[in-house]
Amino acid sequence: MKKISKALSKKLVCPYDHHHLILRGNNYFECKKCKRHYPIRKEGIPDFLPDNLRSYGKDCDSTGLVTEKTEKWQPGLRYWTPGLLTSILRIGRGSGRLLDKKSGVTMLDVGCGGNAQGDVNTDIYIPNPIPKNFVLASAELLPFQDNSFDIVRSAYVIEHNLFPIEMIKEHFRVCEKIVKTYTDNSDWVGAIILRILNTGYIFHDEHYFKWSKEYFTNILNRLGLEGRVTTFNTSPSYLVKAVSFLGILPRIGVIFHRDLYVEIYKK
């Protein structure tokens, strides 16, 4: 079994308590207060998945865990076979991937998937290949100490989360300087086209919430958080890039940008 780095171990806490975590013989972590056990999987991955993603029973092992409910889950769109017109609309150049990692700062990448960027990376399933310093954890219950990272980043995760407010609060708790969040802009004019075509991300079976610049700004205000919400475009599609130039229009410009970018600052 691979050993967890000391630097990572020092950051880990019980996601329900944030204190009292004890490493037991390099096999599992135990919360001294709530008595939960968090196993270290054979790949050397600390498993801090929350209770609702675990199964317990009488045939449990030394960690108290029987099976882990995300084993067969795979990311990506299901029930979507792009038609000819959709394929034409998607023609473009580039990957559309967003890069945030900078030297001299520590970053946590939440919901990292297969394109992890962080010094520490988390998701609810194990990507292939496994990112460095990877921890199984959910976005709204992070197993890290307060102010553990300069930057906490999530790209296209919050629309999949059933508890987005808790997710925002958790990201703010474990960051020291800034939270960076990317998601789809629900006001984007392309969403209307995709609906007509009966396809696209709006029919993703694991998208639970829609986000707009106004709604996200209202949430930050209600939570008393300082930040900014902007619209932009990350699509490599030539058509989407061309339409995004109309984003400079006053008042209605937001409908021509496909994506939202949110920054939350910690004083």
What does it look like?
This protein has 6 helices and 12 strands. With about 270 residues, it is of the alpha/beta class. The protein folds into 2 domains: about 60 residues, no CATH class; about 180 residues, Rossmann fold. The strands form 3 sheets. Strands 8-7-6-9-10-12-11 form a 7-stranded mixed sheet. It has a 3-stranded antiparallel sheet with strand order 1-2-3, with no helix packed on it. A hairpin with a 5-residue loop joins strand 2 and strand 3. The radius of gyration is 20 Å and the shape is globular. The model has no long low-confidence stretch (mean pLDDT about 85).
What is the element layout, followed by pairings?
Elements: H1 6-11, E1 21-24, E2 28-31, E3 37-39, E4 54-55, E5 67-68, H2 84-89, E6 107-110, E7 120-123, E8 134-136, E9 149-155, H3 164-174, E10 175-184, H4 189-196, H5 213-223, E11 226-232, H6 238-244, E12 259-265
Parallel strand pairs: 6-7, 6-9, 7-8, 9-10
Antiparallel strand pairs: 1-2, 2-3, 4-5, 10-12, 11-12
Beta strand count: 12
* Separation of the first and last Cα atoms: 40 Å
CATH class annotation of the largest domain: Alpha Beta
Kindly provide the radius of gyration, computed on alpha-carbon positions and rounded to a whole number of angstroms: 20 Å
Helical percent range? 10-25%
Q: Characterize the quaternary organization of these chains.
A: single chain
**Count of the separate structural domains:** 2
Global mean pLDDT: 87
Would you tell me which CATH topology of the largest domain applies? Rossmann fold
Structural class: alpha/beta
Global geometry: globular
Beta-strand content bin: 15-25%
Order of helices and strands: HEEEEEHEEEEHEHHEHE
The CATH architecture classification of the largest domain is 3-Layer(aba) Sandwich
